[in-house]
Each structure stands twice: as structure tokens, then as C-alpha cells.
Design a protein that fits this description.
The structure holds 2 protein chains of 2 kinds. Chain A is an alpha+beta fold. Chain A has 13 helices and 34 strands. The longest helix of chain A has 18 residues. The radius of gyration of chain A is 27 Å and the shape is globular. The chains are: A alpha+beta, B alpha/beta.
Chain lengths: 596, 394
């Protein structure tokens, strides 16, 4: 156990985490040159394309250190986006140390700060690593003082690295051995294995990545998932080299995988504790929580024949992603579909893209919403995932919305812009601290104001320099109301939204206007209204086209004319018919594109 | 269906122009050197001889020589062509025989020659009487040549003259459009085609769209034109066609009423109904040189024929017949499609209920709204299932 080092890497997107990880694998001979495809750890195509790690993974490496000893280095890769902060905390909990990689040109970003704070709270040793040191614009001195200022750790001995050229990689490996502590934990006590992540493999079922915190785990052992009490038998276990390699056991301090006949990832939850069924631990590891989706949207197949394939695609997807939820939903406007829950907008985009790409489905997604806590006049508390399900105003005593605590890090020259943005989004300032050139801000913000486009807006008001991290805080009462859109007097359920009363009029007017732009002019005038309850708060009209008739149709070639009509009609097919009105798909996402 | 009851027309295509207009999507080719006029007429005659067998015993009620610019051809060539038509087919005594003429290519002599060759209707592609707009349309003539051409046609004893006038031209105002239509009225042709400029795929304008009047102005221009024409005695009988008295265009009427037509010349289409409840379409090679080669030197080669399914038949009938202001009669539908009118009425019930189509005891026509939104209406009538590719029949 003294020669095991479990570590993770904290880094902002593009600061070079994956490249450095590849260098480690190369250095320790985990893969042959031929197997060494670029950035091995991000194995999903989508992850590679977006440069974001979605699932945690690990690799166990044998490192021959300068002191002549062989060490087992377990690198646990962590997801790198605000939507996945719980997953990050569980990965960090499996480690004794973390490398903080900072781009030597760009400096510290808020997400890294948040993750560092999580790591420090978990008692991890942190080693600052300045990457991209080979670039002419690298400014290590500035970045070092930024790290000390903003994160508050000693960065006086930073490691200077270029993951691209390989410069300094050996030094990092040596630092991992000498500056990170070895794991502690009784080898003899009852088994406690922390579930870092789980995923579904179509050959063996669910594979769980675990860190053994205490005791040992062996093949054929009976184990219990402590959050559910469910028992399983270990079928296979081992380590990733990074290839999955079976071993005869995992001991206290080790990181590896366990396959134990679980069919569904939701039975091997991130943060859960596996213990021995015959000699169980008296309490699970700390920090476990059920992950709840924050953002919900209706997702509907464009072609109603796709409903069954869509359902089975969702089932398959869910096998691998327990943070994602779905339940059937029927919309008057969009037909049969599902209300899906996501951790955040990125998660939603990823799921949607996977459904469309991997399962070739044409989907229409409604504007996302958060969960509202509704206290009704008859004393009930309901959680509403769908604006059209909000009870009538006279049945509501109070509506509460989810509030988050946002940590923002921004150079001081943009701090005014950022505060203005947060105030516009109904934020409450909690703290403001200067760290040299950087300012760290903490705001409480309604999640609904953040979920859609806050991150993009933040980037634009700070010329890309602000960074952002958040955690859920609480539900707070607010004057919220359901806003409906009526097309020719018919309420279109899929366009309903929950809005703040002060913003209702502007929102209604802008949404109605946006709809007018999006709905193509057709045979009839189309009245577009925004209403709260029975009160119309905005109205506009998409004027009818004066005519639509081909002027000249001479000659015998009717096929040409027919083709043009067929083409026009194909365009309409992708629209949804509401009464007599054809509404293009983008209308259902119009709310996303309003200028807030 | 008795095919012989269906009226039959003959279309003859002359595929060359001095210059291709930027809005034109017809099969026309810019004249680059001397035209192979004699050889092309030979080819047309050979083509006609081949086709004649399919319509034995059926009288031809109209001939339309279109293009391109048929007036590029000499009166002699047109005479030789029409003589062949009279020889090879049962050309009706009173058949309407039209030639298209471009004001930029007319000469007095030629018009008289066409007339004595047997042509009795001339269609002049004036488009506008505004020099600036004519240039914007890439036309090779100006307003005064256009007026002269119409007068020349009259002097050549054409009683039946059509002029094409286009509206919603690049930058056109309501006033300019009124001046155009007033000038057309002053020239007093028997027929005026008043149609909106549209940007068709595969044209220069489609790739480089000019700024055209919007929906509102286009509509105002159309209504203004329709008012003026109606007030001066031209009666609208089709979306873009206005005629004085009995001068409705027999040839175009036959298309719109879904009659049969033979088509000869490069890229010409034809539609022929046979006794066995079958309707066939075919198309000639578009390239003039390839067309001549095929017709003159490859005796066994023929056009590709496509049988029409019942869905296509009905749709194509409606596509044409609903363009008629007066719609169509039960008898016309049953004769030209061989299907039952009662069945059609059931099929169109929704449109009748929505007030887009008006059902009469003995026919159907579009309502005013339906007529304005004819393309929307037709889109709803398009056959749902994509057609299976027809198998070519030699």
C-alpha cells in the first residue's frame, strides 16, 4: 500500500489534462505505440469532439521511480464541466492527491478553483502544474501568484511542463510519488469500496469503477450496495492498464473495476459503498447523495412512428447514465414523447445529440425548465417538471424555485459587467473578494435564470475571461406565473413557460414576436398571443401571405411544377400542425433564443 | 375512356434564342453561330412522322410553335413545317396555329410570311414597355421595338395576337406596373398574359436574386392589373390569362383541361392517352444536337415513356384544371381521366368544407381564396406515397 498513489487531475477544458494523461501512459508503457491513439481516456466520440470528459475513468500504471522502487499510480480522470460537480467530488474522494493543471498562458479558471476547493475539503494534497510552458506567451510568475491568490495554496514550487513536447513529464511522475501520500485504511477491516462511476457494457453488464477504502474484494465474494441493501456476487474484478485486465483481488488503497451482475447503472450509484455481505461495514462512506436532474425538457419524435424506437433508445441510454431520467409525456401540440431530466444544459445537449446521432432519431425538444416546488391551497407540495402542469393560479399558495450558489471568477475590469448580469438575472450578491487582478464573486441565482444561456452571456460580458461554477442551494418563494402562448386562440402546451411576474410582459412580448418571425406566413392570418391565466399580456399577428400561386404554368412539362410543389411540401412536413397553422420546430425552442 | 374523344394538340419546340434571359427556365440555348435551321426542321418532320402513328385518326385542334425564339426561323422553314403537319396528321380546318415571337427579332416580312404559311395567332414576348425594366430583365428589345412588333403583327393581318406582360419586376413600382398594363391595353391585342416574375431554379436570377417587390406590392400590382384588364374587356379565364371575346387560347386551354398533346423538338414533352385506360408521358432529348442526331440517324431510338399512375393522373389533372377560373365540368374530368367525378368529390370534401373549392352540381372550381392559394391547395392534393420509379418502355 505504501507504493500506491491515487491521484486525479484538476484542469479547465483545454488546459491539457488529456494530453498529459497520455504522456503518463506512454511513459509507463501502458499501451504500445500502435494502441496509443490520441487521448485514450476520452473514449466516447462525443467526448473527444467536445474535448470534455463525461464519464470518469481510470488507469493503473506501473512506474519505475528514481528511487529504484516500482509504484502503482492510479490516475482517476474526472468529468470537467459544471453540470457534473457531484461526479467530480466522488472521483476526488477516491484520491489522496490532485494535480492542478493550469495553462501557463491563460491562468486560473473558476471551475478549477471550485474543484480545488472540493479537493482541499476532502484533504487532498494539491500540486500545481503549469502546462504549455513551451508557448512564447507563457507567464509562469503571474500564474503562480494567481494560484496562490485565488486558490490559496502554496505554489512556490510549481512543476513546469509541456505535455505537448513531453518536457517536465518525468518530474511530475516523481512528484506524484514523493509529494502525494500513500493511501491509508485498514486492510483487515470490513470491505468499504467507493463507487466512483458505473457504466453499462453490452457484454458483461454494469462495470463499476471503485476505490477500495478498507478491506479487500475478491472474485465470487458476496457484496452489498449499501444505499439499497441489494446483494450481488462479484464476477470479475481488476484494473485498467488502461486495457481492462482481470486480477485476483483489489486491496485497500487500490482502484479498479468490479463486475457483479448488476444490470442497470442506477443500482450502482456514484458515491455508493460496496461492502461485504457476510462481514458488512457498520456505516457507509460519507458523501453519498442521490443525483437529481436539474433541468427538464419535453422530447418528442418528429415522426410519430419513431415513438417505439425512441423509447428503446432512451432505455439504452439510461443504462449508462443514471443522472438522466425520462417519463412518458403527451402534448396536444407535439403528440407522444417523454419528459426528460438532465443535470444541466450541457448534459441535455449531449443526450440529445447522442439520440440523434447514435439512434438516428429526428427529435424536437421543448425549451428546458427547472423543477418548481408548488404549495397548493389544500396544503399539498408538488414538484412540477413541466410548465403546462402548473396548477391554476387560484389553487396555488406559493411557488418556489430552485436557487443555486454560483462562484464566479473574473478579471477586475469586467466585474461591473458580471455584477450587472447577475442582478438582471435576479441574483443576490453573497461575497466579493479581490485576489490581485482577479475577483471572486459569489451570487445566489435562481436556477431558471442560469440554466439556459447564463454561461454564454457571462463569457460575452467578460470577453471570455469569466469562469463559473455552481452548486444547488435551496428552494425560494418567488412571484412566478405560468405564461401560455396561444396560436389562433388555441393554447400550445409545449410553449408554456414559468416566468417571474416582473418579467412576464417583456418575456411574453418577445416570445410572441419571435414566434411571429419563425412561423412562416401562410394562407391565414395567425394570431399569436401570450397570456397569464385568462389575461392576454401580448399579442401580435403573422399576416397572411397575399397569395401563393404559380404565375405561369404553360407547356407540357408538369413534372417540373410537381417537383417544386413536392419540395415545398417536404419542407412543411417537418412542421407541426396546430389547428390550421404550421409551426416549424424551431418555434418550440424560441424561448432559448430570446435576448434576455 | 375513349382516347379519341380527348382533344389533341401539337407542340413544336424551337430551342434557340439570341440571348438567354436571366429568368427563363425553358429549354433554350443561346445562338452562337448560324442555326442548323434546315436540319432542325428535317428533324422535326421526321419526329412528327414517328409520332403520328400513336394518334392515327385523331384530329389536331391546335399547333403551338414555341421556344426559345421561333421567330428566329424563316417563314419558309415554318411553312415547310406546317405543310408537313398538314400532310402527316389530321389537322383541323380551323386549328389555332400559334408562333411565339420576340420583339427583338421581328421583321415585317417574316410576320407576313408566317401568316401566309398558315400561322393564325402570334404571341409576342413584350414583358414590359419600360426600357429600364426591360434591361433589368435582360431583354434585347426596348419599348418602341415592342410597340412596333405588335403593330407589325396587325399589319401582317394577325387578328389573334397575344402579348406577354410580366409584373413584380426588379424595383417596379405600382405606377410603373400601371403604365405597362395601360400601354398593353392601348395596343389592343386579343389576348394578354399578365404574369408575375418568379425566380425559378436553374436560372441566373435564382442564383443571383434581384430585389423584387414584396408580397404586398406584388398583390397590389396584380389586383390593379386585373382591374384594368377587366374594365377594358379582357376576361380572366386562367391564373395569368386574359382574353377578349372568343380569343381564349385553344392550345393552352388544352393543357389546362388536361387534353393530350404531341410534343416534337428538343426537350418537348408529350402526353398521350391510349384506349386501354393508360396515359403515357414522354420527353425528347433536351440538347438540340443530340435531338437531331437521335431523330434523324437512330431509327430505333425513341423517347422514354412513363405510364401515369391513377394518383398522378388525378393530381396532374387538378394541377392544371384548377388553374381555370371556371374550374372544370364533370364531363371533362370523366372524359380526360376515365375516373368518376363522384369519387373525386369525395376526395376533395375537406377542401370544399374549408371553402377553398366550390362544388357545383356538374363541376368544381376554386373559391376566390382557393384560387389565391392554389399552390397550398395543390400541395395538399399531392400523392402521399413517393412514386416507384417507372420502368422505361422502348
Amino acid at each position: 500500500m505504501e507504493r500506491i498513489r491515487n491521484f486525479s487531475i484538476i484542469a479547465h477544458i483545454d488546459h491539457g489534462k488529456s494530453t498529459l494523461a497520455d504522456r503518463f501512459i506512454q511513459h509507463c508503457g501502458g499501451l504500445s505505440e500502435r494502441e496509443m491513439s490520441e487521448q485514450v481516456l476520452d473514449s466516447m466520440d462525443l467526448e473527444r469532439e467536445r474535448g470534455i470528459t463525461i464519464k470518469a475513468q481510470s488507469v493503473s500504471l506501473q512506474y519505475q521511480a528514481g528511487d529504484g522502487q516500482k509504484y502503482e499510480l492510479n490516475f482517476i480522470d474526472t468529468p470537467g464541466h459544471v453540470d457534473f460537480s457531484y461526479e467530480v467530488s466522488r472521483s476526488l474522494a477516491a484520491c489522496e492527491g490532485a494535480l492542478l493543471i493550469v495553462d501557463a498562458c491563460q491562468g486560473v479558471e473558476a471551475q478549477s478553483v471550485a474543484n480545488c476547493h472540493t479537493a482541499m475539503a476532502l484533504g487532498l494534497e494539491i500540486i500545481p502544474v503549469l502546462n504549455k510552458i513551451d508557448l512564447p506567451s507563457a507567464d509562469p510568475d503571474r500564474v503562480v501568484s494567481e494560484i496562490e491568490d485565488v486558490i490559496g495554496i502554496d505554489a512556490s514550487q510549481p512543476l513546469l511542463v509541456s505535455a505537448k513536447t513531453g518536457q517536465g513529464v518525468e518530474e511530475v511522475l516523481e512528484a506524484i510519488v514523493h509529494r502525494f501520500p500513500a493511501p491509508t485504511g485498514m486492510e483487515s477491516g470490513p470491505l468499504k469500496a467507493l463507487v466512483i462511476d458505473s457504466w453499462f457494457d453490452s457484454y458483461v453488464g454494469v462495470i463499476s469503477l471503485v476505490r477500495v477504502m478498507q478491506g479487500t474484494i475478491k472474485p465470487r465474494q458476496k457484496i452489498t450496495a449499501m444505499s439499497s441493501g441489494q446483494r450481488y456476487q462479484v464476477e470479475k474484478l481488476g484494473i485498467f492498464t488502461p486495457k481492462r485486465t482481470n486480477t485476483e483481488g483489489l486491496e485497500s488503497g487500490q482502484v479498479g473495476f468490479v463486475v457483479c451482475g448488476i444490470k442497470d447503472v442506477s443500482a450502482a450509484k456514484i458515491g455508493d459503498t460496496f461492502t461485504s455481505s457476510s462481514n458488512p461495514a457498520d456505516r457507509p462512506l460519507e458523501g453519498f447523495k442521490e443525483v437529481q436532474p436539474n433541468v427538464f425538457a419535453g422530447v418528442f419524435p418528429i415522426n410519430s412512428n419513431d415513438y417505439e424506437p425512441f423509447r428503446s433508445a432512451l432505455e439504452k441510454l439510461r443504462l449508462n447514465d443514471s443522472a438522466f431520467t425520462y417519463e412518458p409525456e403527451t402534448s396536444d401540440a407535439l403528440g407522444f414523447g417523454f419528459r426528460c431530466g438532465f443535470l444541466g444544459m450541457l448534459h441535455m445537449e449531449i443526450v440529445q445529440e447522442r439520440l440523434e446521432r447514435e439512434y438516428s432519431l429526428d427529435l424536437i425538444t421543448t425549451a428546458p425548465t427547472v423543477v418548481y416546488e408548488v404549495h397548493t391551497t389544500d396544503g399539498e407540495t408538488r414538484y412540477i417538471h413541466n410548465p403546462s402542469a402548473l396548477p391554476a393560479a387560484n389553487e396555488i399558495r406559493e411557488v418556489r424555485e430552485p436557487v443555486i450558489q454560483a462562484s464566479i471568477l473574473v478579471p477586475h475590469k469586467y466585474v461591473g459587467n458580471v455584477i450587472t448580469l447577475c442582478m438582471e438575472r435576479r441574483g443576490t450578491q453573497k461575497s466579493l473578494h479581490y485576489h490581485g487582478n482577479q475577483v471572486s464573486l459569489v451570487f445566489e441565482l435562481p436556477l431558471s435564470e442560469v440554466a439556459l444561456d447564463f454561461f454564454d452571456k457571462l463569457k460575452s460580458v467578460s470577453r471570455g475571461y469569466a469562469s463559473f461554477d455552481y452548486e444547488s442551494s435551496h428552494f425560494a418563494a418567488a412571484p412566478l406565473a405560468k405564461l401560455d402562448i396561444l396560436i389562433n386562440g388555441e393554447r400550445v402546451d409545449a410553449l408554456s413557460a414559468v416566468v417571474h411576474r416582473n418579467q412576464a410582459e417583456t418575456y411574453g412580448r418577445e416570445l410572441a414576436e419571435k414566434m411571429r418571425e419563425i412561423i412562416p406566413r401562410q394562407m391565414y392570418d395567425v394570431a399569436i398571443q401570450a397570456a397569464i391565466g385568462s389575461k392576454i399580456i401580448a399579442r401580435t399577428t403573422a399576416k397572411a401571405l397575399r397569395k401563393n400561386v404559380t404565375a405561369k404554368c404553360y407547356g407540357g412539362d408538369v413534372t417540373r411544377k410537381k417537383k417544386l410543389l413536392e419540395k415545398q411540401k417536404a419542407g412543411k412536413k417537418r412542421m407541426k400542425q396546430i389547428g390550421k397553422v404550421e409551426i416549424p420546430q424551431e418555434a418550440f425552442l424560441a424561448a432559448l433564443h430570446l435576448e434576455k | 375512356m375513349q382516347a379519341t374523344e380527348i382533344p389533341l394538340s401539337l407542340y413544336i419546340h424551337i430551342p434557340w434564342c439570341i440571348r438567354k434571359c436571366p429568368y427563363c427556365d425553358f429549354n433554350s440555348h443561346q445562338k452562337r453561330s448560324a442555326l442548323p435551321e434546315i436540319r432542325y426542321v428535317d428533324a422535326l418532320i421526321a419526329d412528327l412522322k414517328k409520332q403520328a402513328g400513336a394518334v392515327t385518326g385523331r384530329s389536331i385542334d391546335s399547333v403551338y410553335i414555341g421556344g426559345g425564339t421561333p421567330s428566329l426561323f424563316s417563314a419558309h422553314s415554318i411553312e415547310r413545317l406546317l405543310d408537313a403537319v398538314a400532310r402527316e396528321t389530321a389537322l383541323a380546318q380551323d386549328a389555332e396555329i400559334t408562333i411565339e415571337a420576340n420583339p427583338g427579332t421581328f421583321d415585317q416580312q417574316n410576320f407576313a410570311g408566317f401568316r401566309s404559311a398558315g400561322v393564325n395567332r402570334i404571341s409576342i414576348g413584350v414583358q414590359s414597355f419600360d426600357d429600364v425594366l426591360l434591361r433589368a430583365l435582360g431583354r434585347i428589345h426596348d419599348a418602341s421595338t415592342a410597340k412596333q412588333a405588335v403593330l407589325a403583327a396587325k399589319q401582317a393581318h394577325f387578328e389573334n395576337i397575344n402579348i406577354d406582360v410580366m409584373y413584380a419586376l426588379p424595383g417596379q413600382t405600382l405606377k410603373q406596373a400601371r403604365q405597362d398594363i395601360e400601354q398593353a391595353i392601348t395596343l389592343a391585342p386579343s389576348h394578354i398574359s399578365y404574369y408575375q416574375l418568379t425566380l425559378e431554379p436553374h436560372t441566373h436570377f435564382y442564383r443571383h436574386p434581384p430585389t423584387l417587390p414584396g408580397d404586398e406590392l406584388g398583390w397590389a400590382i396584380q389586383q390593379q392589373g386585373a382591374d384594368l384588364l377587366t374594365r377594358h374587356g379582357w376576361k380572366q379565364y386562367e391564373v395569368s390569362a386574359y382574353a377578349k371575346d372568343q380569343f381564349i387560347c385553344t392550345h393552352n386551354l388544352n393543357y389546362w383541361q388536361f387534353g393530350d398533346y404531341l410534343g416534337i423538338g428538343a426537350g418537348a414533352h408529350q402526353k398521350i392517352s391510349f384506349d386501354t385506360n393508360s396515359v403515357w408521358r414522354s420527353e425528347k432529348p433536351k440538347n438540340p444536337l443530340q435531338y437531331m442526331e437521335q431523330v434523324l440517324n437512330e431509327p430505333t431510338a425513341g423517347p422514354t415513356h412513363h405510364p401515369l399512375s391513377q394518383d398522378e393522373l388525378v393530381f396532374e389533372f387538378l394541377l392544371n384544371a384548377l388553374r381555370m377560373k371556371a374550374g372544370f365540368t364533370r364531363q371533362l374530368f370523366e372524359r380526360n381521366t376515365g375516373l368518376s367525378f363522384t369519387w373525386l368529390v369525395t376526395k376533395l370534401q375537406a377542401l370544399v368544407q374549408e371553402g377553398l373549392v366550390v362544388q357545383l352540381d356538374d363541376g368544381l372550381h376554386c373559391s376566390e381564396t382557393g384560387y389565391r392559394y392554389l399552390d397550398d391547395l395543390l400541395m395538399r392534393l399531392l400523392p402521399e406515397v413517393p412514386e416507384t420509379p417507372p420502368s422505361p418502355v422502348a
